[in-house]
Amino acid sequence: MGFLQKIKADPYDIAKKRITDANNKKKEDLDLSNLGLKKFPSEVNLSEDIKTINLAGNNLEKLPKIFFKKSDLEKINLNANNIKEIPPGIKNLTRLQSLALSGNELEELPLEICELEDLKELLLNDNNLKGLPENIGNLKDLESLLVCYNEIKKVPHQISQLTNLKKFALSNNPLEPPYNMLIGKEVDRKRKLLTNDFKIKDMSASDVQNIRSPKNDIDEELENLEEDLSLLGFDEEEIMKEMGILIHDNKINNADDILLELHEMIDKLRSLKSEENMINIHPVEQALRQRDLDRAEELTSKLIDDYEEYMDIIKKLENLDEKISSLSKKLADDEIDMETFKDAKRGIEYEKHRLEEDLNKLRKEVIYEDYQKPF
User: How far apart are CA 262 and CA 282, in angstroms?
Assistant: First the structure.
């Protein structure tokens, strides 16, 4: 077994520990994000106090069945998993207000999802959705519907019935005419177009030409940024509030530069997280929440450098293990004598000890606390 496998705690055990801790402390929020979970530990019950569950950044392929027995859940984040379908049992979550499923492998939504009368936020960016349910107009309280980066060609006119909708993003879909005219429009305009069944006479010249103002472009970029932050498991609402203030303070002239810096930073972090779910990116999140973009960039660069050094040390340790195994084989085959074997092994173990000390120091900088298992 390699050193990387030795130092990793079992994600399943970590999840059970966190659930038990949340139950005992009567917490409302349960954070199981970025653990690399392939299966939810259903043998551990969820207390009635838990209202929010964050499972973003795992490897789940199905919604945990235990959710459907807990009708009082209010917010579920399952962004960046491998979920392929939503079962009809979703209708049992009668108090659900926010459902985040961006970055999965969904191809369709069940009609039952539109029975969630309290739902205010439905995030479905970056899936393989071919369309939206015809009964989507039943979600009367829905305020935010994000379906960018899918395979949607047509939009049901029932969306016009969502009178509380404030965010409706569907860019980067292969929309057919006249639905492609919805791209970049304000929510009220989209609703009007749908209500009028896309009658061209009801559309202004700017609608037909699909002209957007710079501010609307920035608003759309901010929506994409919010979704990227959510995929990392960050508190996107708090960070977006601070980033909005930062952009406003720069009188929107520097907004493009700020957004570009943020997107570059997030791309680096997402690349890093794709390597190992155990990487601790929370210091970067904290810097963003404090509107300290320079500090966040500095921390991101340091994290990448430290992680590369961390993996390099692990590789060196694995190579040293292989050298000891090779020496043991040579001793067994009488290619070297015992004294030579002991001298060589002593030198290797001294080098291993030095590297392990360096590794333990780096682990405190790079790895989530739950994964920290010093030698």
Answer: 15
pLDDT tens for residues 203-262? Answer: 333 332 333 334 445 555 666 666 666 666 666 666 666 666 666 555 444 555 666 667
Distance CA 303, CA 280 (A): 8
Strand partners, 145: 122, 168
**Partner residues linked to 367 by β-bridges:** 279
How many angstroms separate the CA atoms of 228 and 203, rounded?
33
Integer-rounded Cα radius of gyration of the chain? 25
Full set of structural domains in the chain with CATH: 3-211 (3.80.10.10), 213-375 (no CATH)
Tens digit of each residue's pLDDT (9 = 90 or more) over 28-81? 999 998 888 899 988 888 999 999 999 988 899 999 888 888 889 999 999 989
What Å distances lie between residue 298 and 38, 39, 304, 361, 370, CA to CA?
A: 33, 35, 10, 19, 24
Q: What angle do CA 64, 65, 66 make, to 5 degrees?
A: 90
What are the percentages of helix, strand and coil residues in the chain, rounded to 5?
Answer: 50, 5, 40
pLDDT tens for 192-205 read 555 554 432 333 33
